[in-house]
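Q: Please design a sequence for this.
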């Protein structure tokens, strides 16, 4: 059986094998961990789904392979490759005749469900591949076929680069990227790597190769700034009552037998709750862009930016408007810890109807965040500060104030709608008891 590099998320095109748990010649049992992979988002162990002997390792530890590439071979105890089905081991006389190859790719409706084992694909002879696996005689991975169908790309126009001449996901992405580049003017004046290095040839520097995460961040944020019509709204929010609520809640938190509190709220936990409540109050803004339509959501799924080594990731608090502050706090701590260890699963960081980026702990007073597509909003949170404010009777008093900036996709959220959303957030923060009822 061919062991393939698994697909771990819609946007993941390759993975790096960081460790092999087995060596060539080792016996394999179902459930045994074979290797550990690291993508731009996660790190995880990949188990075997079959018994046999690891006869060959094709991608050693430390090397990167595209999704769908063969990384190892598992054979049975006699040295023969494990068969996909009993029919695959039959004699030539017993085998069913090969079906004729399709003359052209069979259309697959956009969004049609295609089942794909997330870890392995058992490769069988080409005669067993029907129209769903062949395009004009060329083998196509299920993910590549779906991506091509969604993008409206003719599989016959894609040059395969996968094992044994198969079309893989990165081939579709390359074709789609080339098509997009043909429709827009080339970037003017952007120097090449050699030109940049030449500018600094007389000063010492160290080259830092880009890893998968940094490449993904660069590509996604460049696309976001080029394709999303951003506009920004900034407001100052008094957080005195939020600080009082946080202090009272933490003081009243129940403790276990060792004296450890059941939770410890942060200001960010209350910001998450207030943002989720604001999106619930202004449902027209709780939406994402989907090319020819807008998707509006029933619940507030909030992505929260977490800085990790080499980049950032946004784990998602699902249905945050329905959760208690203690539940949000504990879930956020657990997600952040696993994010920094690169142990999040794709369903824990993909999706989300909006996001929060908080740099207040670094002393940043105010900033504007870039929207993470397909989301249409992101809230940038700055540091709290003490400043003089006018009281209702015309006097002056000092208050704790925090600046927040809302980035909006104008295709989804117009100026007035964005202002309404930000006003709702401000109201919940300044009267925090209203988001608890």
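A: Design:
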């Amino acid at each position: 059986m061919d062991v393939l590099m698994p697909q771990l998320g819609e946007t993941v095109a390759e993975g790096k094998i960081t460790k092999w748990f087995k060596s060539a010649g080792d016996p394999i049992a179902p459930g045994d961990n074979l290797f550990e992979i690291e993508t731009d988002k996660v790190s995880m162990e990949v188990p075997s789904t079959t018994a046999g002997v690891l006869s060959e390792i094709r991608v050693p530890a430390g090397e990167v392979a595209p999704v769908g590439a063969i990384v190892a071979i598992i054979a049975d105890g006699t040295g023969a490759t494990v068969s996909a089905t009993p029919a695959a081991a039959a004699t030539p006389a017993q085998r069913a005749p090969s079906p004729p190859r399709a003359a052209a790719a069979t259309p697959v409706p956009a969004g049609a469900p295609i089942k794909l084992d997330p870890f392995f694909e058992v490769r069988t002879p080409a005669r067993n591949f029907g129209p769903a696996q062949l395009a004009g005689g060329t083998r196509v991975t299920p993910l590549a076929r779906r991506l091509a169908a969604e993008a409206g790309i003719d599989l016959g126009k894609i040059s395969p680069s996968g094992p044994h001449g198969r079309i893989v996901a990165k081939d579709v992405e390359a074709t789609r990227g080339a098509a997009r580049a043909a429709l827009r003017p080339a970037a003017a004046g952007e120097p090449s790597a050699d030109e940049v290095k030449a500018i600094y040839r007389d000063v010492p520097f160290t080259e830092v190769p880009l890893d998968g995460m940094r490449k993904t961040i660069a590509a996604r944020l460049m696309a976001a700034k080029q394709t999303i019509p951003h506009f920004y709204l900034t407001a100052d929010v008094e957080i005195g009552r939020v600080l009082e609520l946080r202090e009272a809640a933490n003081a009243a938190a129940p403790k276990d037998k060792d004296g450890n509190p059941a939770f410890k709220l942060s200001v960010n936990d209350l910001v998450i709750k207030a943002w989720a409540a604001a999106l619930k109050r202004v449902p027209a803004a709780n939406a994402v862009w989907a090319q020819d339509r807008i998707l509006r959501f029933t619940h507030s799924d909030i992505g929260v930016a977490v800085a990790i080594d080499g980049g950032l990731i946004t784990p998602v608090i699902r249905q945050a408007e329905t959760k208690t502050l203690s539940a949000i706090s504990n879930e956020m701590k657990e997600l952040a810890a696993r994010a920094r260890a690169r142990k999040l699963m794709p369903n824990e960081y993909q999706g989300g109807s909006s996001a929060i980026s908080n740099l207040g702990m670094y002393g940043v007073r105010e900033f504007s965040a870039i929207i993470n597509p397909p989301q249409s909003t992101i809230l940038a949170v700055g540091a709290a500060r003490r400043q003089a404010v006018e009281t209702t009777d015309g006097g002056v008093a000092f208050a704790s104030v925090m600046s927040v900036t809302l980035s909006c996709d104008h295709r989804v959220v117009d100026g007035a709608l964005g202002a309404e959303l930000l006003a709702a957030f401000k109201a919940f923060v300044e009267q925090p008891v209203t988001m608890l009822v």
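Q: Thanks. Anything notable?
A: The first strand starts at residue 2 and ends at 4. Confidence is low (pLDDT under 50) at residues 83-132, 181-186.
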